[in-house]
Amino acid sequence: MANRCDICNKGRLVGNKVSHSNIKSKTVQRPNLQRIRAKVDGSTQHLRVCTRCLRSGCVEKAL
Q1: Is 70 exceeded by the pLDDT of residue 1?
Q2: Would you place residue 63 in the very low, low, confident or very high pLDDT band (cuts 50, 70, 90)?
Q3: Which residues form the domain of 19?
Q4: Which residues, at least 6 apart from 52, have a Cβ–Cβ distance to it below 8 Å?
Q5: Span 12-53, pLDDT tens digits
Q6: If you placed Cys at 62, which of 34, 37, 42, 52 could pair as Cys (CB 3.0 to 4.6 Å)?
Q7: CATH code (residue 59)
């Protein structure tokens, strides 16, 4: 299962962790995904949504 938001398609960010002696090692930042029940086209579905989409109101939660 991909670590990706179902709404905005936000995924992981890959970069380098750089030490004081300039040794580089790979590091990964993953989005804060929450598994929620949401209304999609009138029906209820389980979605993996990032917290930015939840906060901005891109998703209507199902009760």
Answers
A1: no
A2: confident
A3: 1-63
A4: 8, 10
A5: 999 999 999 999 999 999 999 999 999 999 899 999 999 999
A6: 37
A7: 2.30.170.40
pTM of the model: 0.80
Q: Please report where in the chains the tokens 């929450």 appear, as a residue.
A: 34
Report the C-alpha gap between 48 and 23 in whole angstroms.
35
Rounded distance between C-alpha atoms, residue 53 and residue 63, angstroms: 18
The CA distance from 59 to 47, in Å, is 10
Q: What angle do CA 7, 13, 14 make, to 5 degrees?
A: 155
Q: Would you state the structure tokens that stand for residue 49, as one six-digit string?
A: 């949504």
Per-residue tokens: 25: 């090692």
